[in-house]
User: Fold Endoribonuclease YbeY from Erythrobacter ramosus.
Amino acid sequence: MQLDIDIEDWPAGDWEALAERAAQAAGEAEPLLANPRLIASLLFTSDAEVHTLNREWRARDKPTNVLSFPMLEREELEALASDGPPEMLGDIALAHETCAREAAEKGVALEAHAAHLIVHGLLHLAGHDHVDSDAQAEAMEALETAILAKLGIADPYDA
Assistant:
């Protein structure tokens, strides 16, 4: 998978390299994300921008840490051959202020929390979810935890 990364309103840092490492690890654990035809856009932006996107696209009038906008259904991903023209997987947006606040509350580095949210967003783009059942949430959390372990990041769900 190829990432198209845009960074606005985030502090200096190697966010592109972090995103690439997170995407690589996600592709190793979720093979659908390893398809070389896939392109995902990743926007590192402000709470204000994510608030606007959340209001316009999800009818939720508040910022959130990460938004994912899939462009392919899981069944389409499963049927996608590895050769052929590029396919847009979807878009992800990360809100800096919310991510930074959550990282501070959890006592983790902003980079670790951002990596978790990138992985979380990519899994959503691959058709994983956590809202319909506890089993679904547990499966997605286990996959996230395994991916983050590959990056040397502790289990974010370990209370």
Q: What stands out?
A: DSSP finds six helices and four strands in the chain. The longest helix spans residues 134-150.
